[in-house]
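Holo model, adenosine-5'-diphosphate. Inputs:
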Amino acid sequence: MTLETSIEYIKGIGQERAVLINSVLGIKTVEDFLYFFPNRYLDRSKVYKVNEIQAQESVEILMKGKIWDLKELGTGKGHRLTAKFSDGTGTLDLVWFKFSKWLMNQIPQNTEVFIFGRVNHFNGYWSMSHPEIELDEQKENDNYLRPLYPSSEKLIKRKLNHKFFQNTLKIICTHIPQLIEENIPENIIQRHQLMSRPLAFLNIHFPQNYSYYEAAQKRLKFEEAFFFQLRFGLKKQQHKTHAVGHPFPIVGDYFNHFYQNSLPFELTLAQKRVLKEIRNDLKKNRQMNRLLQGDVGSGKTMVALLTMLLAMDNGFQSCLMAPTEILATQHYNGIADLLHDSPIQVKLLTGSTKAAERRKIHQDLLSGALSILVGTHAVLEKKVEFKNLGLAIIDEQHRFGVAQRASLWSKNTIPPHILVMTATPIPRTLAMSFYSDLDVSVIDELPLGRKPIITAHRKERDRISVYQFAKEELKKGRQIYFVYPLIEESESLDYKNLMEGFEQIAHDFQGIPISMVHGKMKPEEKDQQMKEFVAGRTKIMVATTVIEVGVNVPNASVMVIESAERFGLSQLHQLRGRVGRGAEQSYCILMTSDKMSQESRKRIKTMCDTNDGFKISEVDMQLRGPGDLLGTQQSGVIDFKQLDLTKDGIIIQQTKDAVEQLLMQDPLFLLPQHQKMKAFFIHQQKKKGHWSKIS
Ligand code: ADP
Ligand code: MG
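Output:
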C-alpha cells in the first residue's frame, strides 16, 4: 500500500463502492482517506442513563439499553417511525421522520445496543430523533473514543456507515509507519512540542485517549498552517527579490508643503508610524504590497493622501479606488478640498462620469497632466491608461481578492505600489491568512479628543423617549441620522418601512427640515438631499444603508438604527462610525423588536459593550465564520481542514514566525534537514492544483 494506491484495492471496498465513495466524498486514494478526518468522536467512557438526561438537553450523548415497540404512526406529513428505548432507569421515545422499509429492518430490537444522538424535551416527553444505533460488541482493547465520520444517507444505504469507515481506516492506519513521513523540520517540532506526524495521523483517527487526541489535532493544525504560511511566505519572498518597483527616494515639495501648510491637524502617532512603514517600502526598488488596517475614523484617508503626495514628489501618478460611487465621491471631495490651494490635478472617474469628461480624463492621464485619479471599479477598465502610474490605493469594503488586486499591477510596465485599506478592521487571524501575501500596517489609535460613542439598545415601547432625546440634541444644534435596513429579498417591504418611518418622523418632528436618501432615488436627487444635510440646512437624515460608507458630517451626533437586529456587526459598526466625528459627545441608538435570535442579541450586546472595531470583528467572525466574513467568492482560499481561524490565532502566529525564520535561514531549501519538508511541499502543490490560481 502506498499513498497513491486507489481505494478500490483496500479490503472490503472494491470497484463499485470506490466509485460511490469518490463521487460523494471525493476520496480516491489511500492518502485522501487518511485526510478524511472524523468530525466527532463517540466517548464510550460516558454512557448516560435515561434518568440522567435532564441536564443534557440538545447535546449528543451515548446511551445503552434495548429498543422495543417499533411502529409507524400518523399519515402524510405526520407519518413517522417510533420506538421505545429503555435502560432500566427509564424510557425514552425514539423517532424517525424520514425512514424507509430498509431502515426499519435494520433497527435491532430487544437486544443490548448503544444509541447515540441529541435528546430533546418536547410536550413533557424526552425523545431522541434519528439516533445512531450500534450493537454492543465492544472489544477489549478498543479505545474509548470512537471516530465518527461525516456521512450521508446515500452512503449509509450502501452500508458505508461509521463501522465501515472505522474498519477501513483501521486497515490503513496499520500501514502508517510506512506511509507517513515527518514533514516539519525537527527543530520546529522540538520548539513547539509537536506530536510526530505518524502518531498524529494514528491518533486523529483512533485516539489513544483524550490528551493524545488533543496533541494530534494540534499537530495537524500546526502542519496545515505551517504549509499555508510557507506557500505565501515563499511567494512574498520571491516577490521581494524579483518584483521590481519604482523607487520613491524623494520627500519633496508636494509632500513637505502640504505637511507644513495644509495639514488640518497633527497626525496621530499611529498615523506617523504607518507612514514611516510605507515610506520604508517605497524607498526600495521593490513593489510595495501593503495592507492598512484601522478602525472606522482612524484617519486612513490622510495616510493615503500623504502617500500619493510622495508619489508625486517622485514624478508618479496615483489612483485611489473605492467600492461605491458615494465613497469615491466622498474621497474625491475630501482630497480636492485639502488640495484646493495647490496646483495638483485631481479627478473623479465613476460609472456615471459623462462621456466628454471621461475622454478628457483619459487624455490627461496619458499626457500626465492629471496626477491623482479617484474612482470606482471604472478605473480598472482597459481604456484607462496612465502615463506613469506609481501607486494604487484600494479602499476595500468587500474583499477584492488577489486577482483583482493584481489587475491594477498591469497599469504600468513596472507595477505600481499597492496599498489596500480595509473599511472596517478584520480579525488578526484572517489578516494573517487571507492577506498573507501582504505586509500589514495597523493604525491602532483614534485622533485625540474623540469621545467614545455611547451606544444603547432600545425597543419600540421606548420610541417616545428616544424621540425626546433626539429633540434635545437637535435643540443643541446637532444633526441626527435615522437608518433603515434595505435588504434585497424584502426590498418592497423595507421600502414601505422606510416611507412609514419617514412620515412618522416628519409628523413627530414638525418644523424640522428633513433629508431622505434611498436606493430608488435618482443620483441627482440623492446628491441634492445629501448636500442639504452636509451643509446643515436639514437637521435629520432618514436613509437606508446607502450612507453606510461615505458621508462625513462632524455635526451629526446621534445615529438611530431601526431594526438593528437585521444588520450585521460590521455594518452596525460602520454606521455608528458616521457619528462621533466632531468634538461633541455622540450617541448610537439601536432600535430592535422584542423578538430577537440569540445571534442578534449577541450582536447588539457587542455593539453596546465596545467601540473597538478590532474586537467587534473578532466577534463577527465567531458568529459568521471566516468564509462569510470574506464573502463567498474568496472563502476557498482559507478552506482549512483542521485549522479554525476563530480559535487558532496562536498557531497561526507561531507558524508565521517559524516560516519567516526558516526562509531567512534557508530561502532555497538547500539544507539537508529541510529536504522532507520540501518534498512534501512540492507534492502538496501538485495535488492542490487550484492553489496556483491565487497568484
Ligand atoms: P477612516 O480611517 O475611517 O477612513 P477617515 O480618514 O475618514 O477615517 O478620518 C476620519 C476623520 O478624522 C476625518 O474627518 C479626518 O479628517 C479626521 N482625522 C484624520 N486624522 C486625524 C488626526 N490625526 N487628528 C484629527 N482628526 C483626524
Ligand atoms: Mg475611510
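The radius of gyration is 31 Å. Residues 470 and 558 are 7 Å apart (CA to CA).
Archived with the compound record.
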